[in-house]
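Marked as duplicate of an earlier ticket. Keeping the data here for the record.
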Amino acid sequence: MVSLNSFLPARYRKDVTVIPVVRLHGAIMAGGSQFRSNLNIAQAAPLLARAFADKKAPTVAIMVNSPGGSPVQSRLIYKRIRDLAAEKNKKVLVFVEDVAASGGYMIACAGDEIIADPSSVVGSIGVISAGFGFTGLIDKIGVERRVYTAGENKSLLDPFQPENPDDIAYLKELQLDIHKVFIDLVKDSRGSRLKDDPDLFTGRFWTAIRGIELGLVDGLGDLRSTLRDRYGDKVKMRLIAPQRGMFGRRTPGVSAGMAAEALAGMGEAGLNALDERALWSRYGL
């Protein structure tokens, strides 16, 4: 005889464990637009809130696939995960896909355990700033640039002026402050699991196999197999997806009055895409 229990949705059945799954994917950047969505606290917060709101779930699974980006947004996402885990008394399992490096690894540290594929890339615990200098180009094309400031340091690191050693020294001070925040976060979250290796906080990155030896990763595996091993064959994974409008994803139209704004947004999205491509390519992806 078939039990009526078998017709109930998984979340209402006593014999089935449902694990909410949040996927955090992409370069970590503040903002975003209708043309491009970035990984940041504004994008991640609603998904995390819904995942941790499941009272019956013993664990929240988070899939991370990110080459890094904004240290501020990375830490905000990390802190939101840890705050919700403490508030809702839930364990957090982080599963690394292709890469959890730099800010992506910072987010992964929010997990009570970090599980990765053997070929996943992890680490890159460091800080980087990059840009271009256009002084030769501006001279070549015969453009005279005029800049007026109130405050002697207002034009710090201007790409249209020659590099100033004092500016570079100041930037390095900022990077060291941010790097220390990153190092302290990793030490606090990983604790005694971390090995004493001189390369650990130099910005170097490794496969997950080496990551286990260094204490950056707890185990090798994938989401489905790990959850089935821990919660049985009947475990169900419930992906927490972004909310959609009544008729699916809303795509705003472009009227004559919105044309300039839309073109500007497309230009910004194109620049963001180049930035993101550069982040991924650093890890061979």
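See parent ticket for discussion. Residues 250-264 have pLDDT under 50 and may be disordered.
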